[in-house]
Amino acid sequence: MAYPTVDKPYGLKPINLIGGQPYAGSTRLMKIASGYNTSIYYGDVVKRVSNGTVEKDTGTSTATPVGIFLGVTYTNPTTSQKQFAQYWPAGTVASDAYAYVVDDPDVLFKVVTVSTGTTVAFYGPELVGENAVMVQNAGSNTTGDSAVGIFGGNTATTASFPLRIVDLVPDTSNGANGYCEYICKFNAPYAASNNTGTVVTMTGGHQYLNPTGV
Predict the structure, then answer these.
(1) 50 in helix, strand or coil?
(2) Cα dihedral sign, 97-135-10-183
């Protein structure tokens, strides 16, 4: 049986929950500020900000995610009709804009490994168990899909890296023990000291797991 070729990264694609927990694909509606001037694509990472809205999380080696963006609803300022869309166009003026966000800290998702930009690359099973950084490519206004991937050449035990690789996807292997899709989860916040080393705070990681909030 032939499997589809993965020719580009597609962002973060939720598939289930860690530990075999039931997963119903549920999302939470989170407000986007009217006029927010950064496009957010299906599969992008988003974060809560201090005014209670969500924005695209552009982090790479560090991030403070609240979840994965899976579309948006708002009143189209041109047609005045309610719109359900794959992505949020930068600068849209709509006071009723809400993102659909998978915000469960236990969500597992597929993501593509790249060597640079959107160049898909194959890596070995030794990546499983390590932490990974995100590669923030621009999404597509045509499909509405994200192009975020992870950099397969820079996985490590570094606590600040935002994603943990928990498994690989065998279906799209190159047949030579190389893999271009891995299953990941969001990491928890990590402890960071100030310059004197006397004050320790929690930073980074999934926002629901950070006791200091946003």
Answers:
(1) coil
(2) negative
Residues 6+ apart with CB under 8 A from 22: none
Neighbours of 155 (CB within 10 A): 23
The whole-number pLDDT of residue 81 equals: 97
Block means of pLDDT (10 residues each) for the chain, 214 residues, are: 80 95 92 98 97 97 98 96 97 98 98 98 98 98 98 96 98 94 97 71 93 83
DSSP state of 186: E
Residue 54 near residue 207, CB atoms below 8 Å: no
Q: Taking the CA of residue 104 as centre, how many other CA atoms within 13 Å lie in the half-sphere pointing to its CB? A: 16
Tokens of 209: 């797991």
Residue whose structure tokens are 């060597």? 115
Q: Residue 11's pLDDT is what?
A: 98
Half-sphere exposure for 119 (CA within 13 Å, toward CB)? 7
3 state DSSP class of 207: helix
Phi then psi for residue 19, to 5 deg, are: 75, 15
Beta partners for residue 112, in sequence order: 181
List the beta bridge partners of residue 98. Answer: 31, 73
pLDDT of the residue at 196: 65
Burial of 14-25, coded b for 16+ CB within 10 Å and e otherwise, reads beebeeeeebee
